[in-house]
Q: What sequence folds into this?
């Protein structure tokens, strides 16, 4: 069952949850072949009831100890611009669409999402442009994301500190 | 030789003595300041010559800020060999989740975790969105805990990656070097979230750290003293 996983991390992003469960967006997702929508709503006020959507199978929760499984089962991840969420989705090799919360001022986390977008690793939009982005998106154009290499850090430090 | 002319009235001779005392105190103060500045310069300039690994295990003080900072720092430590021991983790007193993450990380290590890792708590320097005037007070408070902790542990390396918690700890490490007690290497890794701009902590520690890592080329270009190895988390 083609699944969309929506995550807002530890924040609250009611505007996204509202948009993504709207008739307009759910219809768009359905026409692209998605059948299931899983929402991780964090600290948001909005927690949609299960199966409250007519077009898709809906599930919603606030937090889990680990969303690795939800990530793994998703065919598309829609996420807020948080670094942890972005890196987790990209690390799981999932196509990623980042929705920027333009109500947050001076959000430095945008730097990372913007750079990853510039490098072609993810798609990028706001709540108001979500429907259009979903309609026009080409997930096959996304570049695979190579994980970081902490081994390079360890090797450098060993050499610099004289560790054998 | 008598510097105080005996013809001066009592109040004037008193004033001269006080002035001389004040002048001496000022000279001593100036000397101490110059000594500190000189020692500071030496400690910061010669940091990279110091190689604690040649003498045996390298003790590390790891600053675990909350949330993403802890995850990033544990990822950085994934490939550090057993030579980096003991590992002293310092977390902010208001942080609930880092201790669990650290314990999970350490329990995956082959050798006895209870002997080689320890967790300490200190007051947080600054909460997110805290006003700057109260930040001075809370930072001084954090310093009050950081100084004795660092003076007691005397780590070879302080490893940190961004939270304000690390500033008092790094300053304490620097002080150990300035006083000639021990050279403490400051290793700072700017968060992967920082692509175009350094965090405030990064801007401060760029000046005093021995090894300063950035993870994006735009930062490497802007901060010539930084080390760029690509993404390392």
A:
């Amino acid at each position: 069952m083609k699944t969309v996983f929506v995550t807002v991390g530890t924040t609250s992003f009611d505007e996204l949850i509202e948009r993504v469960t709207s008739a307009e967006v759910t219809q768009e997702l359905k026409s692209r072949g998605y059948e299931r929508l899983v929402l991780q709503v964090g600290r948001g006020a909005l927690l949609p009831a299960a199966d409250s959507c007519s077009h898709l199978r809906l599930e919603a929760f606030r937090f889990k100890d680990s969303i690795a499984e939800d990530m793994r089962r998703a065919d598309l991840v829609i996420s807020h611009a948080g670094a942890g969420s972005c890196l987790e989705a990209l690390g799981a090799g999932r196509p990623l669409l980042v929705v920027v919360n333009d109500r947050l001022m001076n959000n430095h986390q945008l730097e990372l999402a913007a750079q990853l977008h510039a490098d072609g690793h993810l798609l990028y939009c706001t709540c108001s442009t979500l429907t259009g982005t979903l309609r026009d998106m080409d997930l096959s154009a996304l570049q695979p994301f190579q994980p970081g290499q902490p081994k390079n850090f360890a090797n450098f430090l060993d050499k610099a500190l004289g560790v054998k | 030789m008598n510097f105080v002319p005996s013809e001066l009235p009592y109040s004037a001779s008193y004033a001269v003595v006080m002035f001389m005392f004040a002048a001496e105190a000022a000279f001593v103060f100036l000397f101490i300041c110059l000594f500190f500045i000189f020692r500071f310069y030496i400690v910061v300039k010669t940091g990279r010559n110091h190689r604690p690994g040649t003498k045996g295990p390298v003790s590390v003080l790891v600053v675990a800020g909350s949330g993403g900072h802890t995850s990033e720092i544990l990822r950085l430590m994934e490939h550090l060999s057993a030579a980096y021991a003991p590992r002293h983790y310092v977390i902010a007193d208001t942080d609930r989740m880092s201790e669990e993450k650290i314990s999970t990380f350490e329990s995956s290590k082959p050798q006895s975790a209870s002997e080689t890792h320890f967790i300490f708590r200190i007051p947080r320097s600054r909460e997110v969105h805290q006003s700057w005037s109260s930040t001075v007070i809370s930072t001084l408070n954090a310093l009050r805990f950081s100084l004795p902790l660092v003076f007691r542990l005397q780590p070879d390396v302080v490893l940190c990656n961004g939270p304000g918690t690390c500033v008092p700890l790094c300053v304490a490490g620097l002080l150990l070097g300035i006083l000639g007690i021990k050279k403490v290497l400051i290793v700072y890794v700017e968060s992967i979230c920082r692509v175009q701009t350094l965090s405030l902590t990064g801007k401060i520690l760029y000046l005093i750290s021995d090894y300063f890592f950035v993870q994006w080329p735009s930062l490497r270009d802007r901060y010539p003293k930084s080390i760029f190895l690509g993404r390392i988390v």
User: Anything to note?
Assistant: The mean pLDDT of chain A is 92. Residues 91 and 147 of chain A are 6 Å apart (CA to CA). Chain A touches chain B through 28 residues (CB under 8 Å).
